[in-house]
Design goal:
The protein is of the alpha/beta class. The chain contains 15 helices and twelve strands. The chain has three domains: about 70 residues, no CATH class; about 260 residues, Aspartate Aminotransferase, domain 2; about 100 residues, Aspartate Aminotransferase, domain 1 (Alpha-Beta Complex), CATH 3.90.1150.10. The protein has a seven-stranded mixed beta sheet with strand order 2-8-7-6-5-3-4, with helices on both faces. It has a five-stranded mixed beta sheet with strand order 1-11-12-10-9. The longest helix is centred in the last third of the chain and has 34 residues. The radius of gyration is 24 Å and the shape is globular. InterPro entries: Aromatic_deC (IPR010977), PyrdxlP-dep_de-COase (IPR002129), PyrdxlP-dep_Trfase (IPR015424), PyrdxlP-dep_Trfase_major (IPR015421), PyrdxlP-dep_Trfase_small (IPR015422). Pfam families: Pyridoxal_deC.
């Protein structure tokens, strides 16, 4: 930084600009949040309209910071979907709790590259506490390693890479030295209704297409079929199980499936993007019986915990396996990694990243144990109420056994179901996403928002009833 730059940073006017910009952001943010419960949920314009409003040409001379932020808010807000609405049920997306939102603002303000423990202790401490609390709430081994990544896709990827390298090591092959070519072929086994991001993560990890194992009508893997598949073939194996089916919310029979997989020498990974949080509540914990016996787990904090995007959580029971797969070293890094305290970059694919675990700490600190349990219970109760209300409407069929937070409903024909879905979303009072399940068009309600309660469920059901064709 030269003298002119130092002078610029020290200039009091720089602080005044900062104050004006942040004041504007605060005003617009409060206005947006205040209207979330009542504004139409769907965007009112498309991306091309927003580009027009933003200005398509890069200006020759720049605008002042306050004008830029005002332009962004004015242009983008008509194209912003109200995903934080308590009646938004699309794609398993949560809202943002106040404490987590505030912490996220501070994370951006502090602007820490959260790679090295000794360099950024202020944010690493919060992340480490959040990791400890997550393990405690979910009943997972306290010695497990936790990495904060962008979402469940990268959490699955991180865990599968750790699994890949470890099962190869057990087979006598060092992937870190020799790569994958020439080594034993890994068998990846998945249930027929696993989430597509497991396949995506496996592809990025070089595992190729998985072998698909039969599942029942709710999407739960069949342990007997898994056992048969594991005996059909040789070489190291990874089994990816599911805690929370995308459509039904169903959980694989974890205890039995994990026992079957471990008997065959396989590593067991559990994709629990939203469902893993069922383990936090005594009312839903039976869904995750046997969970602790797996080798790795993936989940999201920006779903059930309602922290701002993005925050996925990769958990591996054996810290050595995770750090061997993800870790790196370089002379210029101020590393203090030890058996007790690894650097954050040793647990995730990135070296440069924001302190995304800090809002998770804030959400958990704000709720406490009792509040976290109450949140999980409220989400599950809301799904049950939505399902019961939909089932009473003429012609509506609820297609899944509602065990956690997912509800799939349909009318007698795909055309009528699609028309119902379009009418509901167009009206704007509530939003549920469309999908296909078991060969039928469905309207899927994914309950993920911390503010969804009985009153919001009642408004949702009224909107769904009005939208019926």
């Amino acid at each position: 930084m030269d003298a002119a730059e130092v002078g610029h940073m020290a200039d009091p006017s720089w602080g005044e600009i900062d104050r004006a910009v942040l004041a504007l952001v605060h005003e617009r943010a409060v206005e947006w949040r205040r209207g979330l419960a009542d504004r139409p949920i769907a965007p009112r314009v498309d991306a091309e309209d927003v580009k027009d409003a933003l200005g398509r040409e890069l200006p020759e001379n720049g605008e002042d910071a306050e004008a830029v932020v005002a332009r962004l808010a004015d242009a983008a807000e008509p194209g912003i979907m109200a995903m934080g609405s308590p009646r938004f049920y699309g794609w398993v997306i949560g809202g943002a709790q106040p404490a987590a939102l505030g912490a996220d603002w501070l994370v951006s303000t502090w602007d820490q590259n959260t790679a090295m423990r000794a360099v950024t202790p202020g944010v690493v401490a919060a992340e480490e506490l959040a990791a400890e609390w997550i393990l405690d709430l979910l009943g997972l081994p306290p010695t497990a390693d936790v990495g904060f990544v962008t979402g469940a896709t990268m959490a699955n990827f991180t865990c599968l890479v750790a699994a890949r390298d470890e099962v190869l090591r057990r087979a006598g092959w060092d992937a870190a030295v020799h790569g994958l070519a020439g080594g034993p072929r890994i068998r990846l086994l998945v249930g027929a209704e696993r989430h597509d991001t497991v396949d995506h993560a496996a592809r990025m990890a070089g595992l190729g297409a998985p072998r698909v194992v039969d599942a029942d009508d709710q999407g739960r893997i069949a342990p007997a079929a898994l056992a048969a598949a594991l005996t059909d073939g040789e070489g190291p194996a990874i089994v990816a199980l599911q805690a929370g089916n995308l459509h039904s919310g169903a959980f694989d029979p974890l205890a039995e499936s994990i026992a079957v997989a471990h008997a065959a020498g396989a590593w067991v990974h559990v994709d629990g993007a939203f469902g893993l949080w069922a383990a936090a509540s005594p009312r839903t914990r039976q869904l995750t019986e046997g969970l602790v016996g797996a080798d790795s787990w993936a989940t999201d904090a920006h779903k059930t915990l309602s922290v701002p995007y993005d925050c996925g959580v990769a958990i591996v029971a054996d810290p050595r396996a995770l750090r061997a797969a993800m870790g790196m070293s370089a002379a210029y890094l101020a590393t203090v990694a030890s058996a007790d305290h690894a650097d954050p970059h040793d647990r995730v694919p990135e070296l440069s990243r924001r302190a995304r675990g800090v809002p998770t700490w804030a959400a958990l600190r704000s709720m406490g144990r009792a509040g976290t349990v109450a949140l999980v219970d409220r989400l599950a109760r809301s799904a049950t109420l939505i399902a019961a209300g939909l089932a009473e409407m003429p012609g509506v069929e609820v297609l899944n056994d509602v065990v956690f937070t997912q509800v799939c409903a349909a009318l007698d024909t795909d055309e009528r179901t699609d028309a119902w879905a379009d009418a509901l979303r167009t009206a704007g009072e509530a939003f549920a996403s469309s999908s296909r399940w078991h060969g039928r068009s469905v309207l899927r309600f994914s309950v993920s928002n911390w503010a969804t309660d009985d009153d919001e469920v009642a408004r949702t059901l009224a909107a769904a009833s009005r939208a019926l064709p």
